[in-house]
Write a structure and sequence with these properties.
The chain has about 110 residues and is mainly α. The chain is built from 6 helices and 2 strands, in the order H-H-H-H-H-E-E-H. The N and C termini lie far apart (about 45 Å).
Length: about 110
């Protein structure tokens, strides 16, 4: 019973934080291992998994797959299967992702 009340407080706290600071959801969206790097590279051109592995130092298949999946689930990237030989998958920025570019670039400028 005590655990339930603690988790209820955590849920309430997260909702209140999002209401108080709308930018918090944006920051959470782009935070995480390799997400900022993937997003920055997606701004430049469509992405392929193998090229991401080569371009992002220290990346591994599992962590990179998770970052791509989460960005896709959030509607920032779109996964497209190219049915030409050789068959491959490319990731593109969605309209939502393109709308985040100026904000992301401003954040980069502050660092």
């Amino acid at each position: 019973m005590r655990d339930e009340s603690i988790s209820q407080k955590n849920l309430t706290s997260e909702k209140e934080d999002a209401t108080i600071c709308p930018a918090q959801s944006l920051l959470k969206m782009l935070s995480g291992k390799f997400k900022p790097e993937v997003f920055r590279l997606a701004i430049e051109s469509p992405l392929r998994f193998s090229s991401l592995q080569r371009r992002i130092e220290g990346s591994n298949k599992q962590t990179l797959s998770i970052a791509l999946k989460e960005l896709e689930e959030m509607g920032v990237l779109e996964k497209i299967t190219i049915r030409e030989k050789p068959l491959h998958i490319e990731y593109y920025l969605t309209e939502k992702g393109k709308a985040l570019v100026p904000v992301f670039q401003q954040l980069e400028g502050l660092s």
